[in-house]
Amino acid sequence: MLDEKLYRLWGKILDYRNIKLVVSDLDGTLLNAESHLNELNKEAVLKLKDKGIKFTFATGRMDKMTWHFAQEVELELPIISCNGAAMRYLGEKEPLYSKVLSQEQLERIHQICSKYSADYLFYTLDKVYYSNGSKRIEVIKKYNRIAESGEQVPVEIICLDQVEGGIPQEPINKTFIRFEEGEDHNSALGMELSQIEGVDLVVSSHGTADLIPEHTSKGEAVEYLAKSLGIDMKDVMTLGDQMNDISMLEKSGLAVAMENATAEVKSHADIVADHHDKDGLAKVLKKVFEL
């Protein structure tokens, strides 16, 4: 008997035997709290290939910071990165597609962030530009230290103080915002940024947000990918845990939220799987696809 604490609306699974594509979020879904890919999740993803089911992930990260995970699961499809603003195959230089912020939008973001002395990062496909005094850049620096001692790919980082006018003259896919302790996207900074024309403010986790071109989302990217593969969205399964995952949960035929997801995210799901620290992804894939 299925554990109703871990799964709800399970009977609906009977209608989804034709799933051809699975798209998973990374942090809080495929990965555990230490940002590691555990063996059970890895094994479950690899078994999808034996069933003829395609797999990829959609993340707020830049794709370079996911390549080692892609290699572990022998990923064949492009990676959806920067919350849907980019899509690129593992190891490739050119993207399948890339949506970027305009110079006018970047100038406005720079003005507002400077006004509030905000911690912000500009992301290209391969580089990260950071504001002077940024605490968030320490996450990238830590990743680079690990990357340099292993098989991961380091990310080029550049302080905006070294850039004329503080605005890079190259395509920027997203701007990451780290709010002050106790603040979030509803703060004065967040509200002002959300008013920039042609820009969407997307919440990935509490206390942070991404600024991406409007009409850009994981959901739009998954839809683009599915169409390119000749797969109907009703035959797509998506898994996630944060607000930035809702767009793909809404568009897919089978939507799965993790137990660690917020209540709002769970309200958009057909199934609630176990916690990401308790092999929730592996469990739900095994149940759905009889792996």
From TrEMBL:
PROSITE patterns, alphabetized: COF_1
Q: Which InterPro entries match?
A: Cof (IPR000150), HAD-like_sf (IPR036412), HAD-SF_hydro_IIB (IPR006379), HAD_sf (IPR023214)
Superkingdom classification of source: Bacteria
- GO CC, one annotated term: cytosol
* GO molecular-function term, one example from the UniProt record: phosphatase activity
Know the name of this protein?
A: Cof-type HAD-IIB family hydrolase
Q: From which source organism is this entry? A: Fastidiosipila sanguinis
